[in-house]
Amino acid sequence: MSGADNVVWLGTPPFPEAARTALADTRLRANLRRATGTIRDKRLAVAAELEDWEELRETAAAVKRHTLRHLDHHLLRLEKAVTAAGGVVHWASDAAEANRIVTALVKATGEDEVVKVKSMATQEIGLNEALAGAGIRAYETDLAELIVQLGADRPSHILVPAIHRGRSEIREIFRREMGEWGRPAPEDLTDEPRDLAEAARLHLREKFLRAKVAVSGANFAAADTGTVAVVESEGNGRMCLTLPETLITVMGIEKILPSFADLDVFLQLLPRSSTGERMNPYTSLWTGVIEGDGPRNFHLVLLDNGRTATLADEVGRQALACIRCSACLNVCPVYERTGGHAYGSVYPGPIGAVLTPQLAGIQNAASLPFASTLCGACYDACPVKINIPEVLVHLRAEAVEAERRDRLLPTFEALAMKAAGAVLGSPRRLATVQRLAAMGARLLARDGRIGALPGPFARWSDTRDIPAPARESLRAWWRRTRPPSSEGSSTTAEGKGRR
Amino acid sequence: MRIALFITCFNDTMFPRTGRAVTELLERLGHTVEFPQAQTCCGQIHFNTGYRPETLPMVRRFAEVFAGYDAVVAPSGSCAGMVRDHYRVVVAQYGDAALAEAVEHVVPTVYELSQLLVDVLGVTDVGAYFPHRVTYHPTCHSLRMLRVGDRPLKLLRAVKGIDLVELPAAESCCGFGGTFALKNAEVSNAMLADKMRHVQNTGAEFLCAGDNSCLTHIGGGLSRLRTGVGTIHLAEILASTEGGAR
User: pTM here?
Assistant: First the structure.
């Protein structure tokens, strides 16, 4: 298994098509604008409080660069430390292998249900579906993940998976579905956030107290001590990480940090970048197993699933530095209009547009690197300084190369680019085209504006007028008004450029 | 100073008046402006759309045409950004040592207009006069690639007669993004709609920016809706004088 199977849910239409559906959803647009706007402002405010914010970012980026460069070394250290602390380490090369490992571990306990801490890695590999296939029910315990699960929905944001839902929708989902999964919602449930949270709390409490097995992801793992960390806001994670007898953690191999001390930097950056809080309410750290305290069995599944291949790409590998804070999503003007579903991946937004094609193979997500205006807001917001625009453009080149390889005939775009290259390759040809454009414009334009264009440019002219090309290009004007004999400026210049 | 004008292919064809404005302005400030006729395009369209090898001839041409000037000025943040940020990338991937050296020489001499005026020529008051209500949109590449900061605003504030009003959500992308506007036309339109709403709320007669490409996109929408709001390049405001053009 590889490629498209690495990341669940790539059956979506390409981005432009999926985005069209999303754009038509007025409720989605309103929910997203409000939610991303709020988090964006909070993030800016709390980042501004730290005088050394830029230094922290630089340090974090440096730690990540170092870690990725010596990933093999640190992973072996981690395995050793976790094993020494009484945990068991498993290596999974892809999604299928990880799912097999986790399923077998749960089966071995004799249980047929697990509680889950919110985890991107298990979303990425489609663990819940795989467990369901083996007759094991997985209960999401993060409030937003619970909303998504009960609604038979897909997450649309890394941090706030149900960001696309309004509270009245959540009330409906709770009333309709909670009874199917356990304790039903109260009859008189309102759409007040407090009431909704209380309903979820009562529903989930039963699960926490009953569960013998928990599955989590990891925000960080320290290679020197074998300590694994989960950062969260609700406390549900802590319940899952401490109450059950068996804890299975699935972690992307890039989540590792060389040492426990490195957490210092990341625990400052992550909450500020993700929720706009100075500190997250719950940070759970555990090291193997301890007699009489917490789970008696701890399994750490180290997941590759396309990461080693990503690591081999010198430009693209920086995407592995991502700490899943989702700051890039919240500042992205494209994400703000389309929401996460349009990206067809558990990793939406700018980071998803660079991570997904690398994990799944460019041919399986070729529209994603183009789902950006390259405005650069994501790069500015990223706490670990991932140059997302750089990776986007890099992957665009890969997408074009892949298409050239796979297609017998060039696309319209490729032909247009070739033609443009020919014109722009010579000032004389450019001047000719400029004269032709000016002539054509006189036929098309009314009051100096063109209202409709044919072919692929119709998409532009559907909503925008186009100014008519000038009657005289600048180069023609210069040639006419500043003849080479006077002062010789253009003569020298032209002589210079001639090859 | 002996300054070469890199007009950019788009301005050359569509907005020669911006090039004339840059020339007028710099000559008024006492500098020599030259226009190398062999120039064509920075290659950004190809580079950003993924046609990277096709960019190389344009990089080569640029490095040859613009070698040896005190400064090269481009009235476009995104084209100047292409040269400054991406030329080295193209050369490292496809070029040779000679080209790498040529690029190393030319890249540091390339400036976006407001950077040239404020940082190199050391002026903020260029003696312009423009008695209109204007709002300024900082285009993404000027803002986040070139980091021009408030240089354009400093220049605009020094213009006599101007009524400069702040644009809400100024730093949000307008949705142009080159081929993005064609590939993701609907998303582009949604972003444009918000930008136009903010522009109209200012009550400005003109929207000013340092990139005619973004202005073509926003202005095209404003024109289609018959809003009566005009668009104007920063250079054209700075070139305007009392009794002069406009």
Answer: 0.94
